[in-house]
Amino acid sequence: MNRYGQKIRGEFINPKIKRELDERARRGYTGKGMVFFALIVLLTLFSCGGDPPARGAEPPPRTAQAGPGAPTVPAAASNPEPVFDPSSITREEHDSTKLEIQQLIQRLNNIIRGRNYNAWVSYLDNSYLATISSPEYLEQVSRSTVLVRQKIVLNSAQDYFNHVVVPSRDNDRVDEIEFISRTRVKAYTINNAGNRLRLYDLERTGTGWKIIN
Question: What are phi and psi of 204, to 5 degrees?
Fold first, then answer.
């Protein structure tokens, strides 16, 4: 039993409210009016008595959405490539690399004189070989004055080797090199007028130096 100690139709009710009901019954509050009043009383009891209904789980807090003017957080930047400093190359490293390139060019001269296309291709970087094999590149070179005069049209990298490389590159000489990175160099020759002419761009790989341009 609860603190009131009385029960009506299975529910506990305050004695004061019960007396009010009895008084209204004596005064003639019957029928629909009595039922209506009883419903109000019961609703009042249910809303005030007992434990409150269990609350559901609280929804997660809403996160603020970034508006048009909200500051953005930059993504974590990857470590940038260090800028190459040519002065980091020692004189010994420069001279030994220059000697390697000179020896390479001498081998290439012999290969070109022997018109050995397969040996020449083995010194080319794959991307450079793809470039000189492309129809666009071959068409562009075919429009040069010398080839137009000779009525030569290049259709393959081997045509390029036979008609461009062999007539002009069999006696190259390396006079200077320039480091572009620790693994890339440009090889130059100095002509009779004192002008520096680029021969090749080369890159050191796991299998030796490759021509990249």
Answer: -80, 125
Helix locations, the chain, DSSP H: 15-27, 31-48, 91-113, 117-121, 126-133, 135-142, 145-150, 157-160, 166-168
Taking the C-alpha atoms of residue 177 and residue 101, their distance in angstroms, rounded to an integer, is 8
Tokens of 2: 């609860």
* Alpha carbon distance 29, 36 (integer Å): 10
**Cα distance between residue 137 and residue 153, in whole Å:** 12
- Predicted confidence (pLDDT) per residue in 45-87, tens digit: 445 444 444 444 444 444 444 445 545 555 545 666 678 998 8
User: Both tokens of residue 209?
Assistant: 């130096």
Closest CA to 112 of 206, 203, 200, 208: 200
Chain center to CA of 193: 49
User: What's the CA gap between 195 and 18, in Å, rounded?
Assistant: 120
DSSP 16-39: HHHHHHHHHHHHT--HHHHHHHHH
Strand, helix or coil for residue 205: strand
For the chain, give every domain's residue range.
7-47, 87-211
Q: In the structure encoding, which two tokens stand for residue 79, read together?
A: 């470590």
Q: Assign domain 87-211 to a CATH class.
A: alpha beta
